[in-house]
Write a structure and sequence with these properties.
This protein has 11 helices and 11 strands. The chain is α+β, with helices and mostly antiparallel strands. The radius of gyration is 32 Å and the shape is elongated. α6 packs antiparallel against α7 and α10 packs antiparallel against α11. The strands form 2 sheets. Strands 3-2-1-6-5-4 form a 6-stranded antiparallel sheet, sandwiched between helices. It has a 5-stranded mixed sheet with strand order 7-9-10-8-11, with helices on both faces.
Length: 353
């Protein structure tokens, strides 16, 4: 092949490499062992590429801010091994190659050896995987916030999200619907935990089918579930309640096999409570009275709600007073408890309970 043809082939190959780099977040690199120099090709903001060099690379890794410090020992171990003997592998780390802060990279590398077996180059590519890692970490954090079986939010995280939602949407109607499913433990002891789990998951799916997709689904207890979110009015929440009860009862209650499932439901909205805890407390009152009367739902009248809220307020005052007397915490805690007590007493005077 003539020299001109070889040059044309090399030019075509170079253009292909440039096009590949422009379409990806890949950075190619070549570490010259004898020179202790790293050469790497990066894509610039104007979609052109540039070759950069880092001399005295081994010392730069240790003495500069090129790598995030926690990754330096393992990175050096991988590079040293690749220099001593033929090695092929990959390694994920955080580096500041472009001077714009640390980002996640996945480096694929291979040793290039001479005829004597001595390594004289380590070459490869480093892919920017920052977006993928962030998305993965977010997904893992989300999974930790959810109950493993039902995929509902666990109580602590669900409460936090509900309180944030209330704070952002103070001027719209927000409904809370809580279901208590009794009889599952009895079912497990009689028919086994696999049957109990199957029934539980069917109930969860029934709840999901009958509520809007943008509401918060929270597992508030082992057999208690909450739906929390925007509702045009309380009648809309009641409609969802009836649909879910009817579906669950249609599956398991008064059916052949006589499964011991009992469904109790409670509803409220933010017109009856200023925060998540107040709303949930009202629902728990309803659930308790419904179980006591052996019915699926019970409506609380205003007088009953006031009586229960009065008992709750006095309980808050007693707890705050006791904590102030017994706590050894810092002054900030004392001030916080004083505010709780003061506001609870103010609420008593305002409502004239």
């Amino acid at each position: 092949m003539e020299m001109q043809d070889i040059e044309e082939q090399l030019k075509i190959q170079e253009e292909r490499c440039q096009l590949l780099m422009l379409c990806t977040h890949t950075m190619t690199y070549d570490y010259d062992v004898n020179k202790d120099e790293l050469s790497f090709v990066i894509r610039k903001e104007d979609n052109t590429y540039e070759i950069r060099h880092i001399e005295e690379y081994m010392s730069q890794i240790v003495n500069s801010d090129l790598l995030e410090p926690t990754f330096i020992p393992e990175y050096m171990e991988c590079l040293t091994k690749a220099i001593r003997q033929y090695t092929k592998g990959k390694y994920e780390f955080r580096a500041n190659f472009l001077g714009k802060g640390y980002r996640w990279y996945c480096a694929h590398y291979v040793s290039i050896c001479g005829e004597n077996g001595k390594v004289y180059h380590v070459v490869g590519r480093a892919e920017d995987i920052e977006d993928e890692r962030v998305a993965q970490e977010r997904k893992c954090a989300e999974a930790e916030n959810r109950d493993k079986k039902t995929r509902f939010y666990n109580y602590e995280n669900g409460k936090r999200l509900a309180e944030e939602y209330l704070a952002r949407n103070m001027h719209i109607n927000i409904g809370m619907l809580v279901f208590q499913i009794d009889g599952l433990e009895e079912l497990a002891s009689h028919d086994g935990y696999q049957v109990e789990e199957a029934v539980l998951l069917n109930i969860v799916e029934a709840i999901k089918r009958n509520v809007p997709k943008d509401v918060l689904l929270i597992r508030t207890g082992s057999t208690q579930f909450m739906i929390f979110g925007h509702a045009d009015n309380v009648d809309e929440v009641k409609k969802s309640r009836e649909q879910i009860i009817n579906e669950i009862e249609g599956m398991y209650i008064n059916k052949p096999g006589d499964l011991p499932i009992r469904v109790t439901a409670a509803i409220t909205d933010n017109s009856t409570g200023n925060n998540f805890s107040e709303m949930y407390h009202i629902c728990k009152i309803q659930l308790g009275k419904a179980v006591e009367k052996r019915v699926s739902t019970v409506e609380l009248n205003e007088q009953m709600e006031n009586q229960e809220m009065r008992a709750l307020i006095y309980e808050i005052i007693d707890l705050a007073t006791e904590a102030k007397q017994n706590t050894d915490e810092k002054r900030k805690m004392q001030e916080y408890l004083s505010m709780i007590e003061e506001r609870a007493r103010t609420l008593l005077n305002i409502t004239k309970l």
